[in-house]
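Q: what sequence does this backbone want?
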């Protein structure tokens, strides 16, 4: 138990919340690096996706934190893959997605960048550095952090809207909407780097993102007469689905822990009540069926 006091805290999502079907069902390559099986969607099968690699790595860290003896090799195998595959772009670095992704509001041509990957990757690097004090992890985290101040048009993940609000985009691509879970994970990653370094740039980027999150949370509230839930994004893909809704609640609780701002706590409590009331009743099932039909219509309109 004493050793845990010297470890950086577990990632706020458990491995079961990250991978509801089981973390040990994730396909690994011959070197033990996580891949993701898209099962033929868009012609994709087992692909290297930095988001999924980072989530798998954080899951291994959480399991190591609990056992203090297992899963560390798996953690470092994947953390080192992320270090090696951080693409340097002068003053900043990005984890690239090297396959296309097409959905309503998102048209991502390879190679493309994700603010979600950047935030999760930073969270991995923070834990690897605190375990080893090897500056290669800290350097990678700092390079990834710099991508949050680089506009999408120049290869980063930043969008500054007409009102001057800063968004860190999960899909830094053409036709992008603002995706809530990716934005909030980015903020948590930035906070964790600030937590261990007290870096002024991290503090500034975090404050700009927190300001945006507070200002626009209402955009992501699906408050219909017959069904209430959180939204996945602020454009067409409005229904977040059970897994992402649970993530949203956990993310907001984490932001409350970081900021002590009760506005985040209030949103988390509100969406928890939605979950209790609508998750397992007939209305929710009918809404899911409606959402599937709606998604098919939107995909036809976008020809995806």
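A:
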């Amino acid at each position: 138990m004493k050793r845990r006091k010297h470890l950086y805290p577990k990632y706020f999502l458990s491995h079961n919340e990250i991978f509801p079907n089981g973390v040990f069902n994730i396909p690994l390559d011959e070197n033990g690096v996580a891949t993701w099986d898209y099962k033929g969607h868009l012609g994709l099968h087992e692909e290297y996706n930095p988001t999924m690699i980072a989530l798998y790595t954080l899951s291994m860290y959480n399991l190591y934190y609990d056992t203090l003896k297992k899963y560390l090799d798996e953690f470092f195998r994947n953390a080192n893959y992320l270090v090696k595959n951080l693409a340097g772009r002068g003053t900043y670095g990005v984890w690239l997605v090297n396959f296309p992704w097409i959905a309503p509001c998102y048209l991502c041509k390879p190679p493309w960048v994700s603010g979600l990957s950047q935030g999760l990757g930073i969270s991995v690097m923070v834990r690897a550095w605190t375990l080893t004090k090897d500056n290669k992890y800290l350097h990678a985290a700092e390079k990834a952090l710099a991508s949050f101040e680089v506009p999408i048009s120049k290869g980063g993940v930043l969008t500054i809207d007409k009102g001057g609000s800063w968004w860190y985009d999960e899909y830094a691509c053409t036709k992008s909407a603002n995706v809530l879970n990716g934005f909030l994970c980015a903020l948590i990653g930035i906070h964790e780097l600030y937590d261990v370094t007290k870096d002024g740039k991290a503090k500034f980027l975090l404050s700009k993102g927190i300001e945006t999150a507070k200002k626009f949370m209402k955009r992501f509230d699906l408050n219909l007469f017959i069904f209430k839930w959180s939204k996945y994004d602020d454009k067409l893909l409005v229904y977040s689905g059970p897994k992402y809704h649970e993530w949203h609640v956990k993310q907001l609780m984490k932001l409350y822990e970081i900021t002590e701002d009760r506005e985040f706590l209030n949103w988390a409590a509100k969406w928890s009540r939605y979950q209790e009331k609508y998750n397992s009743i007939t209305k929710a099932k009918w809404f899911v069926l409606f959402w599937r039909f709606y998604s098919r219509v939107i995909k036809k309109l976008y020809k995806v």
